[in-house]
Amino acid sequence: MTPYHAPVEDMVYLLDAVLGAPATLAALPAHAGFDAALMRQVLDEAGRFASEVVAPLNRSGDEVGARWHQGQVTMPPGFREAYQAFWRAGWPALAAEPADGGQGLPLVLEAVLYEMLSAANHGWTMAPGLLHGAYECLRHHGSEALKARYLGRIASGEWLATMCLTEPQAGSDLGLCRTRALPQADGSHRIEGTKIFISGGEHDLTDNIVHLVLARLPDAPSGPKGLSLFLVPKWLDGGARNPVVCERIEEKMGLHASPTCVLRFDAATGWLIGTPGQGLNAMFVMMNAARLHVALQGLGLLDAAWQKARAYAQERRQMRAPGARETSLIIEHAAVRRLLHTQRAWIDGGRVLAYRTAVELDLLRHHPETSRRAAAERWCALVTPVLKAAFTEQAFLGASDCLQVFGGHGYVREWGIEQHVRDARVTMIYEGTNEIQAIDLLVRKVLGDGGAALRALLQTLGADLDPSHPADAAALAPLRALGSLAQQLVDRCRDGDLAPAHAAATDFLHCAAVALLGWAWARIEAAQRAHASPAPEPCRNGAMAFKAWVAPRFELHARLVAQTSQSTAETA
User: Active-site residue among 110, 136, 431, 525?
Assistant: First the structure.
């Protein structure tokens, strides 16, 4: 089995040569001391931790899995020790504010760290995966008393956190939640209800778990506006166990090392976070951060699968490639190269988009100019659902393609590739299904303002390209076509009938993904022209593959948008 190796060289090239991230970040007062050398130092250490500490636990974590017994969950061997080393080394606090005990480094470094960790061991990484979102949620919405008690421990990772939204009858429609919160004389609340699909709801990695729970106050209105957010710890001050009961953990297709829990709150003690009835607004701080990290999970899992498949293809001999006189390495066969190089088109182009989005989050957080912060917010609002949906889907499909490289050997556990296929599948579902991401993009964010934000984003992207250069001109064409497609849908839905948009949303999102990838690859090629040092070999293969096998998908999805929206309007 090929071990995962964090591709720090590739990541640094994209961050520095392509995106100019160190210079952009150093211009912010909060990161005035940041430079390429510090970025490289942090990512080198992150790569070592992911490759040498976390990755070796992946196989045993999948095979042993998390174990439930009488309400308690035991994590696979080595997981607790690795997590304790992780938080004591300061990794969860990488981007937290110094006032909260954090290191105050850019969010983009945290994003790259979690891509590495997800590639190395997706199951283990699920445990700290919500820390950043929980930290931001409590930091922005928590009372001073709650922040004094919990914020530092969440920022450091000493205590892990969960996001308790889903209930048996309330999946994507959170307005159906029934969990109740009853006010108490001391200002606390008694939380009663059942939550399902709670990642890390019970485990032995940390001494406490902080649950952030959506619940309904007495006399609250029905629907999402009646939901409030509460902090409910596993252990209360003084050492008493809060009555939060793990009834079971789910038996799943993948992610065996991550306990997906059914939690029962039996009049558990909790405290209100933020304003009553504004629970979803506070929770979305967690969810938006989580959606970018899920996109990075997809990129990491796809890269891990590609690493295994390429190593196998470079060693395995089968048949003769055209023009060869003897049995060839399978990487010499054009069909295999296509499978492998296509994944590079998604991985490296996707990294440019995801890393740029993380830099935009840094700008949103720290830039002194209101107009630049507004542009950063627009980028994140429009690009994040595309990243989450398109790159988690490609993680699953691409990992399956990588399994194909192994032939029958890929279907057996020995080579480890089938685990990536199983683990990747859930990324298309959690943190908002990919269909919901598509509807969010088109219906809420494009049609919601008549396409104004998208037009502004497309102008920003186009300004980075030189129409006189063939590669840039090729990237401009789908961006302009995407704008036209959006305008057609805006015009078609002016009468208030959104059915055509709902039907066409998934294909519209795929159009946006291919157009954004085209911009990303134009930036990569521009960096290669501007720098004497060549791009890493995977980048060069990905550039060819994008033009040959990914870019043509834009026209297909654009036709499907037109056909689907038209047929829906005609049959309504």
Answer: 431
Stated pTM of the model: 0.96
CB neighbour class for 334 (10 Å; exposed up to 12, middle 13-18, buried from 19): exposed
User: Where are the alpha helices (H) located in 314-366, listed in sequence order?
Assistant: 334-366
The pLDDT tens digits of the residues spanning 522-559 come to 999 999 888 766 777 777 789 999 999 999 999 999 99
Q: Which of 21-30, 295-304, 309-318, 357-366 is least confident?
A: 309-318
Q: DSSP string spanning 449-464?
A: GTTHHHHHHHHHHHHT
Mark whether 431 is an active-site residue: yes
H or E element in which residue 499 lies: helix 499-530
Whole-number Cα distances in Å, 435 to 48, 439, 499? 36, 6, 14
Q: Where are the beta strands (DSSP E) in 17-106?
A: 67-69, 72-74
**146 with 187: CB under 8 angstroms?**
no
Contacts (Cβ under 8 Å, ≥6 apart) of 271: 143, 145, 146, 187, 188, 189, 230, 231
- Quick check: helix, strand or coil at residue 265? strand
Q: In terms of Cα–Cα distance, which of 460, 485, 467, 470 is closest to 555? A: 485
- Of 524, 509, 489, the residue nearest 557 (C-alpha): 509
Of 517, 514, 107, 476, give the one whose Cα is nearest residue 353. 517
- Taken in order of first residue, the domains within the chain and their CATH numbers are 8-141 (1.10.540.10), 159-278 (2.40.110.20), 434-572 (no CATH)
